[in-house]
Amino acid sequence: MELLAGVDDYIVTTKELNSLFTFDFKKVYWNSRLSHEHERLVNSFKEPQIVADVMAGVGPFAIPSAKNNVRFLANDLNPESFKWLNHNIKSNKVDRFVRSFNLDGREFIKKAPFLLLDEPFQETTPSLTQKQQKELKHANKSPKLLPIRDYIDHFIMNLPASALEFLDAFKPTYKAIQEKYSDTDRPLSFTRPMVHVHCFSKAADMEQATVDICQRASDYLGHTVEPKMDGYNLHHVRSVAPNKEMYCLSLRIPKF
């Protein structure tokens, strides 16, 4: 980025999904054209789920979700993104719901499930709107606490140029978890969380894109990815340029 005139100051604040995001535009990535995709995924996460964002940036998924009482493990390798992620967590007052990490994406995928087992999110009071607070006060009731939770329900990988490549970290991680906890009465997401991975394809036609993306995802995951698998969805996010389409592939981690 080149400064043509004016003050050399790229720190900006923008609002999205009832959250404020401050960052140095020169040093981190932000694209307002992705606001609908941010909203789509944020709305798919439900209290009291836990989401792990492998490439969290400055928090466009984590912070609005946390305001909906979804707890987050938010990771980004870029030190500047990590700095502003922490700033935005504090400024939006969601630090009870978001834990931040500055790790390589593969390392984060391999460590996150076990970090959560060692240190679960504890029982806590949910975030309430003023209307909800008034209703509870009028009814002389206390809010239902968010429960202790020690497993990840969803992973997000929003780095479309290379995110598919990180699928290779899931098989060794979740194969070990599946083998160790095969005889326990655990929720499905404990051993087989959902994964939402953004990617590019030259194919604008959904049928061609399905073939292309499923083949690449299969190669990296080490398991066949196909429309009939559990949790499968391929969502067209936007057209980036001629012969460059952005998609989000969603699937549930298979039984390895």
Automatic annotation (TrEMBL):
GO molecular function (one): tRNA methyltransferase activity
InterPro entries named among the record's database cross-references: MeTrfase_TRM5/TYW2, SAM-dependent_MTases_sf, TRM5-TYW2-like_MTfase
Keywords: Cytoplasm, Methyltransferase, S-adenosyl-L-methionine, Transferase, tRNA processing
SUPFAM superfamilies: S-adenosyl-L-methionine-dependent methyltransferases
One GO BP annotation of this record: tRNA N1-guanine methylation
Positions of transmembrane segments: none
GO cellular component: mitochondrial matrix
Superkingdom assignment: Eukaryota
Residues covered by the SAM-dependent methyltransferase TRM5/TYW2-type domain: 1-255
The UniProt record lists the keyword Transferase: yes
Pfam families found in the cross-reference section: TRM5-TYW2_MTfase
Protein name: SAM-dependent methyltransferase TRM5/TYW2-type domain-containing protein
Organism: Wallemia mellicola (strain ATCC MYA-4683 / CBS 633.66)
